[in-house]
Amino acid sequence: MPHAIIHLGVEVTPQVKSEILAEAQKILSKNFGKPIGYCMSSVETKAMAFGGQEGNCAFVDVRLFGATNGTKNNSVA
Q: Which among 40, 59, 52, 43 has a CA at the least distance from the CA of 11?
């Protein structure tokens, strides 16, 4: 089960969160070859800084629970 944990450094509306969640699941499904029903995504907003600047940044943590092959790992990495 692929899972994308998306950390945002800014607050977004519930509508934008929903759009991000849906798009992340589509990307996971396409890249890992899994049905969208097996893909999970989450969005968290919190204080973040990148390059000494607070605010407009994001970090995406992609995890895979279950089996995949080395070729698929390399293509996604």
A: 43
Query: What is the DSSP code string of 21-44?
Result: HHHHHHHHHHHHT--GGG-EEEEE
State the DSSP code for 51.
T
**Domain at 2-72, CATH from 3.30.465.60, 3.30.429.10, 3.40.50.1860, 3.90.25.10:** 3.30.429.10
pLDDT tens-place string over residues 17-33:
999 999 999 999 999 88
Tokens of 48: 């973040």
Average pLDDT over residues 59-67: 86
Report the number of secondary-structure helices (H) and strands (E) in the chain: 2, 5
pTM: 0.81
